[in-house]
Q: What sequence folds into this?
């Protein structure tokens, strides 16, 4: 069923349950009514933005043009280097005696694990504390034929360490072409992607893990602890999880 409209929210919203969210998403995708994305509690994507910030067509096109200009993944790595340089410069201005240096931090590689932890799957449809499916879940139907443009339509991103919307679009395009990745779920700070093709070698998986760390460092720094654990998970499961604190 369709949930009551939210003031000024421009897209159709379908209400379901966490237990049925993925099946409902599949049905909506096949129906061709736009690109469905499971958003869990709809307030999760409304809260970070005032309603007048939801994208006008002009803003969507501006974001998509910016995404098209990003050479991914090189552009992501450059953006992170620039962010680090700006932070160091700010620190030096605040404390001229600081001897902080740009050290190109990388998380530990670690040992290849014997087993991998269970994938969170479509985590936005579940209670993060209990692991139980949510009683009420919302699916937004974004009026586009291209799922990679969803972050542009929702103007999703650009807080804390989370990249701006154009970087999400560029990442989704790159990973769609390389791994058949598709955005399925999204809430205020989480993305759930499902892939059609996993990395096939440990070397490829480690390279992908390094890229995902640049995109979302919290999945290692506050999650799997090292690159090998992330790489092993990428080889073992079709679901990718990104979370920004």
A:
């Amino acid at each position: 069923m369709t949930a009551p409209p939210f003031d000024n929210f421009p897209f159709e919203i379908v209400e379901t349950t966490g237990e049925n969210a993925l099946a409902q998403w599949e049905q909506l995708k096949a129906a061709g009514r736009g690109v469905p994305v499971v958003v869990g509690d709809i307030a999760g994507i409304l809260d970070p933005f005032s309603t007048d910030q939801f994208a006008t067509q002009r803003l969507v096109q501006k974001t998509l043009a910016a995404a098209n200009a990003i050479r991914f993944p090189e552009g992501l790595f450059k953006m992170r280097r620039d962010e680090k340089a700006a932070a160091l410069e700010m620190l030096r201005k605040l404390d001229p005696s600081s001897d902080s240096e740009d050290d190109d931090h990388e998380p530990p590689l670690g040992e290849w694990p014997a087993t991998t932890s269970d994938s969170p799957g479509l985590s936005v449809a579940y209670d993060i504390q209990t692991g139980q499916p949510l009683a009420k879940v919302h699916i937004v139907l974004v009026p586009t034929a291209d799922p990679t443009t969803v972050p542009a339509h929702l103007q999703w991103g650009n807080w804390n360490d989370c990249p701006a919307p154009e970087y999400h679009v560029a990442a989704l395009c790159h990973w769609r072409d390389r791994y058949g990745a598709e955005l399925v779920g999204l809430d205020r700070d989480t993305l759930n992607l499902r892939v059609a093709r996993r990395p096939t070698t440990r070397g490829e998986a480690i390279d992908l893990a390094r890229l995902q760390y640049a995109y979302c460092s919290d999945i290692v720094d506050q999650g799997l602890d090292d690159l090998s654990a992330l790489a092993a998970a990428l080889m073992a499961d079709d679901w990718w999880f990104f979370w920004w604190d």
